[in-house]
């Protein structure tokens, strides 16, 4: 059943597979790496950039958040809240995240019985002002490193203003 010829075929198949893997790896490395400079200290320059069509807004050109909030559309904020519904409720009960009813101008980490991350529990003396909420919603992990909130954030300031305007009505 398991003779010398079978063993030779198995070893040959293993060696052939290893050869294909090594050649594929070598070809991929040759295609997808930049050439290394002769001196190891030199930095690589980026070969190309991808234009996404979105221009970055300079910080000095940005509209103050208070102005965005004043012009916000609360009905559009309700649609933005659909991104939050999976973890947050507005009926006073906690889910994966704490409930958000009355969150604007509410003390941080104030939902009784909810296990906040140490990052947010350490902010318990502060309140969720519209500006704080905007900063948190833009980048939760940047605002409160170590937060349990896995949401990536809302980079669009108009969306954040609309959401906060809607949350103010709840």
- Would you list the SSEs in sequence order as H and E? HHHHHHH
Percent helix, as a range, is 40-55%
Strand content: under 5%
Overall residue-averaged pLDDT value:
85
Q: If you compute it from the alpha carbons, what radius of gyration comes out, rounded to the nearest whole angstrom?
A: 27 Å
Q: What is the number of beta strands?
A: 0
- CATH homologous superfamily of the largest domain - what is it? Cytochrome c-like domain
Q: Do you know the CATH architecture of the largest domain? A: Orthogonal Bundle
- Total number of domains: 2
The global form is elongated
Assign the CATH class of the largest domain: Mainly Alpha
- Helical segment count: 7
Low-pLDDT parts are none
Largest sheet: none
| N-to-C span | 76 Å
Question: What class would the helix/strand composition place it in?
Answer: mainly alpha
């Amino acid at each position: 059943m398991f003779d010398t010829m079978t063993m030779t075929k198995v070893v040959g198949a293993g060696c052939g597979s290893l050869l294909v893997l090594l050649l594929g790896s070598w070809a991929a490395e040759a295609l997808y790496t930049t050439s290394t400079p002769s001196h190891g200290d030199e930095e690589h320059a980026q070969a190309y950039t991808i234009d996404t069509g979105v221009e970055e807004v300079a910080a000095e050109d940005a509209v103050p958040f208070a102005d965005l909030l004043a012009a916000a559309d609360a009905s559009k904020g309700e649609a933005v809240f659909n991104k939050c519904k999976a973890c947050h409720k507005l009926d006073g009960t906690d889910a994966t995240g704490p409930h958000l009813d009355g969150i604007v101008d509410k003390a941080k980490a104030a939902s009784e019985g909810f296990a906040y991350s140490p990052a947010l529990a350490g902010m318990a003396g502060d309140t969720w002002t519209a500006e704080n909420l905007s900063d948190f919603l833009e980048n939760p992990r940047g605002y409160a490193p170590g937060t349990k909130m896995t949401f990536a954030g809302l980079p669009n300031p108009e969306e954040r203003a609309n959401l906060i305007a809607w949350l103010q009505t709840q």
